[in-house]
Sequence to fold (311 residues):
Amino acid sequence: MHSDTTDSKIRQKYILIFEWHQENGRSTIDTIIQSNQAWNRDNDNLDEYTHALNMPHPENASLEEMYLVAKKVLCGILEWNYQVKVGNDLVLGDIARNIIELYNEIEQHKKAEQLSDKFYDIKDYYIRNEFEYFAVANEIYKDVLLDNEKNIGGRVALADTNWEMQKLRNNGNQLFFRKPIALNLKAVPEEEDNLFQLAFNGKISIINITVK
Amino acid sequence: MAWTTEITIKNTSSSKLRCKVKKGQVFENKRIGTGLQNVAAAKDYVFELQPNSTQVVQIEVLCINQRLKSPHGLLNVTSYMVNEDFHSQQDLWSIMNYE
Fold:
């Protein structure tokens, strides 16, 4: 799976950062002390660096933890050693940047998966009026049941409720066509004696349904 | 405000049938974009349908589309139901408006 491979790539790169700091943390502390003395600064950055040295072990570190360490290398307290070369002629900063890129890939993949769980489609489309919306909705939701002869369906409830959500959220020129779960609906039970199932399976005929 | 849905059902089989309508069962308008609210059953119902007979059952329903007009006219029973429990009309609208 995509995220497993990426996870492993991130971990391999994180090992380089982790091991370098385990071996060279002490000398960096000396450098920071000398720098603070030379510039007459307090040692707040020393405390922060010492704390950062307690980074999670590569075997146990979560993706987010490795990402946060990489951010510190790129633009945080671990930036002290940004330009130090390790491994294949890469500097720590390049390794950190690579980790961040890979982590962002995973996050984007997750977001795309979440979107496909919730939406049939998202269209960049400026709707001038609701008639235009309903014409598009009828096409998007065309695979959802609507059988007016048998008085069974689902498509109208989805299209109408989605339109209400669309207006409520004011998504500008983007039209979101939500799946039932994103409209707070779920499938009726598959029990044989459920009204919908009885009608769908032809065990009963619904002559009509009226509301008043 | 609760509304009443009247369903005329024909049991075409020669045996008695049990028919359940779960709380939250959605009934929809017959056309997209009528501007009328779709509705959901306000509680659980169980009916006995006699063999080879037609009967009318009544179901109390609540509206699911707060910004649309009051429900009216002919409906279909849908393959969907509200995915959370609710206790009042306002409660149901809050669920349906949540994203």
